[in-house]
Amino acid sequence: MTPSERSRRLDLKLRSVLAGEAAAASAEVENALSTPSDRAAAAFFDVDNTVIQGASIFHLAKGLHRRKFFTTREIASAAWKQAYFRIVGVEDPDHVAQARSSALSFIAGHTTTELEELGEEIFDEAMAHRIWPGTRALAQLHLDEGQRVWLVTAAPIEIASTIARRLGLTGAMGTVAEHVDGVYTGQLVGDLLHGPAKAEAIRALAEREGLDLARCSAYSDSSNDLPMLSMVGDPCAINPDARLRAHARANGWRIHDYRTGRKAARAGLMAAAVAGAVSGAVAAGVSVKAHRRPS
Length: 295
What we know:
Blueprint: H1 3-25, E1 42-45, H2 56-66, H3 72-88, H4 93-104, H5 112-127, H6 133-144, E2 148-156, H7 157-166, E3 171-175, E4 177-180, E5 183-188, H8 196-209, E6 217-220, H9 226-230, E7 234-238, H10 242-251, E8 254-256, H11 263-266, H12 269-286
Helix pairs in contact: 1-8, 2-5, 2-12, 3-4, 3-12, 4-12, 5-7
């Protein structure tokens, strides 16, 4: 590996750390127990296909598009760039940066208030009826035991916070976009809250809240979340993809599958790539809480 390649990998690592710290700092606690009886234990839930059927960002994007928030050309261009790199397996940081910039271009100039209000509307019309009852029951069990429950997702912090609030959870950590005086700059704080960045967010939150990760639980459908699942004492696979199912079985983790059939196993490469691309493009563009580092 050349010095240039090492530098780029370090930059990606730093972006993940910053994204995690920003997500932890912006975590909503509106519904937190005033005096949780078990302060050392908590549960962390991924959102897409774990808490909600399908991709929350896809539903958000459709709702924003119907409201003329951005054009089909804008989102298609950003999504295709990211889909291409996922399909061919290209991880070059320069290409990733180009896709990120494209995804963020249409958010600049919009206000946080605008997106917060639209997010509430879109949740009611497209997401509320898609919550998995089984996962909701698991989250409630943790709350009933006096534990705090956070969502941890690559989705925008705005929509993540809305889902958490509607379910009566403690709060949420999601992708954070920068804004100045309530207006988006078109830049992310760090990177998408995805993969290793989720683990960084949980680590930062655990330190702040005094959590014992060995006594915490984590839930996800995706092998991309193995860093998050592996850092807690009680990992659980929900509606898992093939790789996560195999890993969970090999390690004796709990598995819950609320789907009919094995839809995930039949999903094609293109569908997975496009879903990931839309997630990356829209999450990058419509995250709504800002984390401002002191200068």
